[in-house]
Amino acid sequence: RRLWLSYSERSALAKNPLACRILQLMGEKKSNLCVALDVPNWSELVRLVNLIGSDAVVVKTHYDYIKDWKPSCQDELTKLAAAHNFIVLEDRKLGDIGNTIMGQFETLTSWADGLTMHSICGGDSLKAVREAKVDSRPHGVFVVAELSSQGNLISAPYTKKTTELAKEFEDVVAGLVAQNPLLENEPGFVQLTPGVSLKAGGDNLGQKYVTPSDAVLARGGDLIVVGRAITRSINPKETARQIRQELWSAYERRIAE
Ligand code: 5IU
């Protein structure tokens, strides 16, 4: 079962190269923290990366959140990723016809290791990812199976169909973005779980939060996305360390069960 195996054991079972690399790096760094850097400008992103880059396995970006993003940021981010040994996930949530997705995937993987994507357009959009011409670095997509936001429109059948597509396209799908353990018998996939903060609750625009330990133990998350709890902390480094610690000890409890 996925939840009882260690990340290192699971890296050998992954069919997608990015999933394999993420699972391996989680074991090496002893971290299951993905930091979401939704910050208004590039200098703020660099400042935060230099503070928390060593604690995170994955840095999740929304490049279009950053007001002064320019093409040179791509190279700079690649250098920061190498210096702090993290993987870059652009949370672009692709969701279009196959041909469009193929072009977007080819362009964005010039700097992002992974991309998020919606399954709304069906199997052929994943076939497009499979057929995209990319460099030899490990790449893959995280497909949105569930959302953390209040009142979102994803239905149970949509979630189920999305998990089936992930299995059908296991070579390109690194995992699912999900709030519940959907692929319990598939240890090669990584469950990316956002909507996590120090305390349960939410914000005033529909985001819902669970705690770090609930994300790992109750929700089955492998790689846990934490944004504002860290980026808006008065001491981001200290908060990142604390959350990293909470996430990792929850994972250790999970595999010891
Ligand atoms: N994100 C979610 N929920 C989702 C998906 C993505 O919060 O269901 I799919 C993204 C949005 C944001 C980050 O970039 O994860 C969470 O940020 P906060 O921890 O600041 O809420």
Automatic annotation (TrEMBL):
Tell me what this protein is called.
Answer: Uridine 5'-monophosphate synthase
Annotated keywords: Decarboxylase, Glycosyltransferase, Lyase, Multifunctional enzyme, Pyrimidine biosynthesis, Transferase
This protein's source sits in the domain of life called Eukaryota
Q: What is its EC number?
A: 2.4.2.10, 4.1.1.23
The similarity annotation says: In the N-terminal section; belongs to the purine/pyrimidine phosphoribosyltransferase family. In the C-terminal section; belongs to the OMP decarboxylase family.
- Organism of derivation: Nesidiocoris tenuis
Biological or metabolic pathway of the protein: Pyrimidine metabolism; UMP biosynthesis via de novo pathway; UMP from orotate: step 1/2; Pyrimidine metabolism; UMP biosynthesis via de novo pathway; UMP from orotate: step 2/2
User: Where do the Orotidine 5'-phosphate decarboxylase domain residues begin and end?
Assistant: 32-243
Q: Which residues form a coiled coil?
A: none
